[in-house]
Write a structure and sequence with these properties.
wza like fold; elongated; alpha+beta
Length: about 250
């Protein structure tokens, strides 16, 4: 009996010692959550160079202020002058109206009418012979004269109105008188410009008087035949100075 009681007591003591932690032993803290990590940049070593700065953005282009127009390309003033296109073979004559245009030298630019003596007046150059010259010949002449006063002048001659190329019609038409030849004009066209032949005109015996080499010649024109599409070759092109007589 005593032996059994001793064994029981020893067994109970062992169970108690195993189930309870030893005295003086402190509990271990729970490990930190592995998912929560804190990243800390290592400090730069002493004496290390600073990181280069980012390159500066390029400066924006300078634009004109609002309401300020961009500079325009210089325009030759001759382009602003209203002129006519001279017919082939045209030479300047009395009463023709011209525009003499200098680029950059506005004080020399002028409008001029050819005088009865065949001259025009140009500032600084005084009188310049113009009659009998083509517009290009007159331009070259003015350039040579102006070159003595202006360095490398740019000059243009614009024909504004042709009054020297005239033909005349007289007799039995609606509006007899002189007419300018701005372009090719036939006898029939001139009669139409003059208002047509009158009721009692002798339209079968119209005459064109022309001066050739100082001599007057006459060319017959039958209005009735041409209006009937006969003898169309007699409907000639008029020349400056021609006179059409409608009896």
């Amino acid at each position: 009996m005593k032996l059994h009681a001793c064994v029981t007591a020893i067994t109970a003591a062992l169970i108690v010692s195993v189930g309870a932690p030893a005295r003086g032993q402190s509990a271990q803290p729970a490990p930190a959550d592995s998912t929560r990590t804190t990243t800390t940049q290592p400090a730069a070593p002493a004496g290390a160079a600073a990181a280069p700065a980012a390159p500066a953005a390029p400066a924006a282009p300078v634009t004109a202020a609002a309401g300020t127009a961009a500079p325009a390309t210089a325009l030759n003033p001759a382009a602003l002058v209203n002129g006519v296109t001279p017919p082939p073979g045209y030479v300047i004559g009395q009463d023709d109206q011209l525009a003499i245009v200098f680029w950059r030298e506005k004080d020399l630019s002028t409008d001029a009418t050819v005088r009865p003596d065949g001259k025009i007046s140009v500032p600084l150059l005084n009188d310049v012979d113009a009659a009998g010259l083509t517009p290009e010949q007159l331009r070259a002449k003015i350039f040579a004269a102006a070159n003595k006063f202006v360095e490398d002048p740019t000059v243009t001659v614009v024909v504004k109105q042709i009054n020297s190329r005239k033909v005349f019609i007289t007799g039995q038409v609606g509006k007899p008188g002189p007419y300018g030849l701005g372009g090719p004009t036939t006898v029939l066209q001139l009669i139409a410009m003059a208002g047509g032949v009158n009721e009692y005109a002798d339209s079968e015996h119209i005459v064109v008087v022309r001066n050739e080499n100082g001599k007057n010649t006459s060319i017959e024109f039958n209005y009735k035949d041409v209006s009937r599409r006969k003898k169309l070759q007699t409907n000639i092109e008029l020349q400056p100075g021609d006179t059409v007589i409608v009896p």
